[in-house]
Design goal:
Elements (H helix, E strand, L loop, with lengths): L2 E5 L19 E5 L6 H11 L5 E6 L6 H15 L2 E6 L3 H10 L7 E4 L3 H5 L1 H10 L4 E3 L2 H5 L4 E5 L1 H16 L15 E6 H6 L6 H6 L2 E3 L1
Parallel strand pairs: 1-2, 3-4, 3-5, 5-6, 6-7, 8-9
Antiparallel strand pairs: 7-8
Length: 216
């Protein structure tokens, strides 16, 4: 049976396909590549908050993609001269406990890694960030639409449209092995100005000009 996947991580590393251009077998799909954007997310957060020398990275230790994301963030943090504190949370209670200790650890900002469980706790994460007044970078626009500060990641609607197109082509006779794994054609940088004002932050004009959407 043909399979079309939407993957947030590297599908080759995950063992889904052997090649992007020639996936082989009966599997192909769209690779959102969320898990490879950590360095870019940290760079944008640092540009917004250059004085935040200690940054937390919220990750779900139960996700096998957490370790490579953390490694990428650690490498980016070293290049930027930032101290990165890894914060592992695999349950709602652990998330609550972590946010309550951020100020004690002198963590000035937070990067939320790409993870299904954390996405499912979107409302909790945004509410806690607001309550504890912590600026946070998210991997998806939907966090910012719910009140989060900033996000950078693939346009999910476009990515799922690409996946739907592949399903249609397969139903018309195309073979998955002949359909290369596609990567997103559009990435979104979104800023919530209302949240920034609530946090007492002034968004640099350089970031505002690069934003795909500014939520008032």
């Amino acid at each position: 049976m043909p399979i079309v996947f939407p993957s947030g991580s590297d599908p080759i590393a995950a063992g889904l396909v052997s090649s992007f251009s020639r996936p082989a077998g009966n599997v192909t799909g769209i690779a959102f590549m969320f898990t490879l954007l950590g360095a870019k997310n940290l760079e944008l957060l640092h540009e917004l908050l250059p004085k935040a020398t200690v940054v937390g990275a919220l990750a779900n230790p139960n996700n096998p993609n957490a370790a490579p994301q953390v490694r990428d963030l650690q490498a980016a943090a070293r290049a930027l001269g930032i101290q990165l504190v890894v914060l592992n949370a695999g349950s709602e209670r652990e998330i609550d406990n972590i946010y309550s200790t951020l100020s004690q650890r002198r963590i000035g900002a937070l990067v939320v890694t790409a993870d299904g469980f954390l996405i499912s706790r979107q409302e909790q994460l945004v509410e806690l960030a607001t309550r504890h007044a912590v600026p946070a970078m998210y991997p998806l626009r939907q966090y910012v639409a719910s009140g989060g500060l900033i996000s950078y990641g693939a346009n999910l609607s476009e990515a799922f449209r690409q996946a739907g197109n592949y399903v249609g082509r397969i139903l018309k006779g195309a073979k998955p092995a002949d359909l290369p794994v596609e990567q997103p054609t559009k990435f979104e940088f979104v800023i919530n100005l209302k949240t920034a004002r609530a946090l007492g932050l002034t968004i640099p004009q350089t970031l505002l000009l690069r934003a795909d959407q500014v939520i008032e």
